Amino acid sequence: MRKSVVIAEDHAFTAAGLCAALGEMGVFDIVGVAANGIEAISLIKQTRPDCAILDLSMPGANGLEVLIEARRWSPATRVAIVTGNPSPQILGQLVEAGVDGIFLKNSAPETICAGIRAIAAGEKVIPAEVAGAVRKAGTGAGLTAREIEVLHAIARGLSNAQIGKALGVSAKTVDSHRTTLMRKMGVHSTASLLVLALRDGLIDI
Q: Which domain holds residue 109?
């Protein structure tokens, strides 16, 4: 049975190569290609694909944020993240958010394609070096998936009202998350929160 796939990658050349490689396998139908995270969320909501393959670093919303939204709007979609050299903390956030597979961009194309086939079949594909880094680093400050989502939105310079609109909650709820983030991180200002989060690899600006 063929599987539907959404690809999110802001580099057109890389996206085209991934589309071609998956197309040659004869088991995937590419139902949409997004150039940024916002487009990716919209495509996943519209198409409810079997699989979504996301670049971690994208404009608009990064791969982690898209993963969290995918879990909300299309929980059956299997999600894989393709990334360069992320921090162990961000890898930990991906695992905590329920990612189905993580692939490093320096992996051989056949390795990535085989891994995506395995994910589509219901398996988890987390490379040993990634799993080891996650175990060593932990997930950072014990943040929840929603707090991580709010943290990344704050890093993009969004106001409480803008974040609330994007997440479907009130600005007051966002402010509560912001306060909790500061308490967990041991800081007293948004600027200090972002400096510490960047230092600890919790955000990738």
A: 3-138
**pLDDT score recorded for residue 37:** 92
Are 174 and 163 in contact by the 8 Å Cβ rule? The answer is: yes
β-bridge partners, 102 = 81
4: pLDDT strictly greater than 70? yes
Distance between CA atoms of residues 189 and 183, nearest Å = 10
Q: Is residue 205 part of a domain?
A: no
Rounded CA gap, 84 and 90, in Å?
A: 12
Separation in Å, CA 51 to CA 26, 79, 144, 184: 15, 6, 24, 34
Give the integer Cα–Cα distance in Å for 77 and 51.
5
- In the chain, which ranges are continuous DSSP H helix? 12-25, 37-47, 63-73, 88-96, 109-120, 128-137, 145-155, 160-167, 171-185, 190-199
pTM of the full predicted structure? Answer: 0.69
CB-based contact 18:9 (threshold 8 Å): yes
- Please report, for the domain that includes residue 164, its CATH number: 1.10.10.10
For the chain, what is the mean pLDDT?
86
What is the pLDDT at residue 136?
Answer: 57
Residue 88 lies in a domain: yes
Counted domains in the chain: 2
Shared-domain flag, residues 24 and 93: yes
Residue 122 and residue 54 share a domain: yes
Query: Do residues 120 and 151 share a domain?
Result: no
